[in-house]
Design goal:
Low-confidence stretches: none
Strand order of the largest sheet: 3-4-6-5-7-8
Radius of gyration: 34 Å
Number of strands: 23
Mean pLDDT: 94
Helix content: 40-55%
Length: about 850
């Protein structure tokens, strides 16, 4: 006896339908060698069609938009009549076929549905989905999960490949409850986030039985620990063959409803489920809030170092104080990279006069500012915050009084237990619970609200957290990109040797690193005991996850050294760090030292007073001297450059050349008698001659340090033979004329004098000297041509314009006012960046060159 089953298929795309038909025929040919002859004899064809719009039929007039979502009653199929001898007979036959497809039930329904968020749905489709599938309207794939169940016979099976976000995030909660209560998750495979080659999509594959089955367990495979698409299939097969592999699970879906939000947390133990059931939610004792959306970040947000420090309102207590301060910019928490405890304080937001300009702008977009400038009553309050979108582990940070949160940096507010909350959110248990609620890249407010909180041993937790915050704050403020930066770390101890200073730096930082690691593991141990999960989790923290010294330490070496940690057999905590030797990146440490030296050359910093000195637009050497004298210092230790122009050339052609000034800085800080030794150590650390570093590497490092918003700008000739640095805060409309007259023209005269000297060598020197002189003259001629082009075509026309800048407009705008006079930086003033800036409707774009 031969059993036959009918296969039916329908697609939006005619080509997809044709390909599916071809594949089906070829599969049949593989099984039955005479299948082509059967087709010839019987005209057998696959039951596969595609959607078309039928203007004469109300139900199918928008079939190409709605597709299989169109609902057809079986009686409508029976009643469908084809008009005989009609011009539309063929079209009617096609329509009847579609009625038949959509008006019957099936034993098995399988799909890889379209993934279209509701915000991107075509108008008619969006309305239809909202009206007919309100519980799954967030995304079209979710709607198709329900639609396929509607197609399915009772006790039939549906199979899917969809994003796995439906399993966790709050916008799909109603869909999850529907599936848990009315259907049965037969089996499910949750792939690793990049489980398909060339696509970063959070995918799962699963089957549903179209009826509830009580007291039964579904089968689940979790592949999140296996990175890369090549491991997905073999690890799935291994799990099927060996249910004890560690990533195969059996779960009763009714247990999911015991967890807030009903996430499909199939891997969670009974203990963890009980914690969710028996504990308060974090949102019950705290306020967890989204921050504001500016609707135009380029207009309203700046890196703090771009603008005048006097216009930034620090440590503001509330909105009333902010208005009274008359400040324009305020610290803005915008999330940022993976970092715990403290930091990511990089941005400021224009919130002058209670955000008047932002509110006016958003009102002009007909968006209504109240929906975007959210949670205003929490602005400037002390908070714990995290990055909303993160591919790594959950990492929370302490934010002191005075900042406004962005939507990318959601925040938690609690007057009495903020340190405890921070410790909990940075624990391993919190990370696991967060991933149970939502293992996607989004750390949403909704899921953080649902975290179970057990408030216990508060005093001990608070003590550890306070130390961790101070440790991380010290690390953050040790970089000049922090607004509380004081001085470079290599100058903290008074020594005459940079090598000795570097050794002290490494010792000090190593102690801080190990103490922070010890504290984080101790916190994990404390929370394991509080939550009763000592048997399920160890307290260990990989060394590479300690987030201080992120630039200075080799993270690959840290990973390799985890196996050398010596742990106590009872507590599980590290008992001995003596076998761990941190590897410091000397080039990184000394590039920071050199950057600080350049800051002192421009007067941004001073050896006589910690912190910022000149950081407002148009400030001068006189302003610097006034600040220093206010400290009781009549004669500065190291005087900044007078005209705010420092040459960066391949030889020392000027007295205020950058290499000359750096040597002077070394002489002042570590002694004249140690200059050569210390300079050699600097060069050994950065891996090259100091002049080569300044000419080839310094500006690149500066661009990277300031994330393509440089504060020192390099004006450079077309071939790079002439370069000078300026400090943008000290720029004036006369700066370009000074570069032209006092440096470029003088450099040209010096080169011409050199040529005259070489002419004499050509007459009176030896043949070797003459050959060498002739070669040098050729190079100088090339340089002179470069200078001539730079002056005639670029610098002189700009100099006579006396270009003004406004630091409030930001580096992206101001940098692009200088055309080809200033060094090109990809992403800042290349062709693409200029086109972007020319689209800004809040600046005078005619000034962009």
């Amino acid at each position: 006896m031969i059993l036959t089953k009918n296969l039916f298929g329908v697609d939006i795309d005619p080509r997809a339908a044709q390909l599916a038909s071809f594949v089906l025929i070829m599969k049949a040919r593989k099984k039955v060698r005479s299948f082509f002859r059967i087709i010839e004899r019987t005209n057998l064809q696959p039951n596969i069609s595609f959607y078309q719009d039928f203007d004469f039929d109300e139900k199918f007039k928008s079939a190409t938009a709605l597709g299989s979502l169109i609902k057809v009653d079986p009686k409508e199929v029976e009643d469908f009549k084809i008009e005989a001898n009609s011009l539309f007979t063929a079209r009617q036959e096609e329509l009847k076929k579609l009625y038949g497809f959509l008006g019957q039930s099936y034993d098995v329904v399988v799909t890889n549905p379209p993934y279209i968020n509701s915000s991107r749905m075509e108008g008619e489709l969006k309305i239809y989905v909202a009206q007919n599938y309100p519980d799954s309207k967030t995304d079209l794939f979710a709607t198709f999960i329900i639609r396929c169940l509607e197609f399915c016979n009772e006790d039939g099976l549906t199979g899917y490949m969809t994003p796995f976000v439906w399993m966790f995030i709050s916008s799909y909660e109603k869909l999850r409850v529907n599936l848990i209560d009315q259907h049965f998750i037969n089996n499910l495979i949750q792939l690793e986030y990049s489980g398909f080659d060339g696509a970063t999509v959070p995918i799962c594959t699963f089957t549903l039985r179209n009826q509830p089955i009580s007291d039964s367990k579904g089968s689940y495979i979790r592949l999140s620990d296996f990175k890369g698409h090549k491991l997905q299939e073999p690890k799935t097969l291994e799990a099927i063959q060996n249910p004890f592999c560690g990533w195969f699970y059996l779960a009763n879906q009714k247990d999911f409803e015991k967890i807030p939000g009903s996430p499909i947390g199939y891997w969670l133990s009974n203990k963890i489920v009980k914690i969710f059931i028996n504990s308060k939610k974090l949102g019950d004792v705290s306020e967890v809030k989204q921050g504001l959306t500016t609707s135009n970040n380029e207009r309203f947000i700046r890196v703090w170092s771009e603008i005048e420090i006097s216009k930034i309102g620090f440590e503001i207590e509330n909105s009333e104080k902010a208005i009274e301060s008359l400040k324009k910019w305020f610290p803005h928490n915008k999330g940022g990279t993976f970092r715990k405890w403290f930091g990511n304080l990089e941005f400021v937001v224009n919130y002058y006069n209670d955000g008047f300009e932002m509110k006016k702008f958003q009102s002009s977009l007909n968006q209504g500012w109240t929906a975007r400038i959210k949670s205003r009553e929490f602005y400037f309050k002390k908070a714990v915050s995290w990055t909303m979108i993160s591919s790594g582990k959950f990492a929370a940070r302490h934010y002191e009084t005075g900042s406004i949160s962005n939507i990318a940096g959601p925040s938690l507010f609690n007057e009495h237990s903020l340190d405890f909350m921070l410790g909990f959110l940075n624990s391993k248990i919190s990370d696991l619970l967060m991933k149970a609620l939502n293992p996607t890249l989004n750390n949403n407010v909704a899921e953080v609200n649902l975290l179970p909180l057990i408030l216990h041993d508060k005093e001990k937790i608070d003590s550890l957290v306070k130390f961790n915050v101070l440790n991380s704050k010290s690390d953050w403020n040790s970089k000049e990109t922090a607004w509380e930066f004081k001085k470079n770390e290599l100058l903290i101890h008074e020594t005459v040797s940079l090598e000795e200073s570097f050794d002290l730096f490494k010792q000090r930082c190593s102690n801080k690193f190990f103490q922070l690691h010890r504290n984080e593991e101790d916190l994990n141990k404390q929370f394991n005991e509080i939550y009763g999960l000592q048997e399920e989790f160890n307290p260990d923290v990989p060394l590479e996850e300690i987030t201080i010294l992120q630039d200075e330490l080799d993270r690959d070496v840290l990973k390799a050294q985890n196996v050398r940690l010596v742990r106590d057999s009872v507590t599980g905590l590290v008992s001995d760090y003596s076998g761990i030797k941190l590897k410091f990146d000397a080039k990184e440490v000394f590039s920071q030292f050199i950057s600080y030296a350049v800051g002192c050359m421009f007067g941004r910093y001073s050896l006589d007073k910690v912190g910022l000195i000149l950081a407002n637009q148009g400030e001068t050497l006189e302003d610097y001297l006034r600040v220093i004298k206010a400290e009781g210092i009549q004669s500065p230790t190291f005087l900044p450059d007078a005209d705010n122009i420092i040459p960066v050339l391949d030889e020392e052609w000027f007295e205020d050349d950058i290499v000359f000034r750096f040597k002077e800085f070394l002489r002042v800080t570590f002694g004249k008698e140690n200059l050569e030794k210390n300079l050699a150590f600097v060069e050994s650390s950065i891996g090259k001659d100091i002049r080569k570093y300044f000419v080839k590497d310094f500006y690149t490092d500066h661009i990277q340090l300031y994330k393509k918003r440089p504060i020192y700008w390099m004006f450079s000739s077309p071939n790079g033979s002439f370069n000078v640095l300026i400090y943008m805060h000290r720029y004036t409309p006369d700066t370009l004329s000074k570069i032209l007259n006092d440096y470029l023209n003088q450099y040209r005269e010096k080169l011409r004098a050199r040529v005259e000297h070489l002419d004499q060598v050509m007459i009176s020197g030896s043949s070797t000297e003459q050959t060498k002189a002739d070669k040098e003259k050729g190079k100088i001629r090339t340089v002179l041509l470069d200078l001539q082009e730079y002056e005639r075509d670029i610098l002189y026309p700009l100099a006579i314009e006396r270009i003004a800048i406004d630091l409030d407009e930001g580096v992206l705008v101001n940098y692009n006012k200088f055309g080809k006079a200033i060094k090109e930086v990809v992403g800042l003033n290349d062709k693409k960046a200029k086109a972007k800036v020319r689209e800004f409707d809040w600046i005078d774009v005619s000034r962009i060159r």
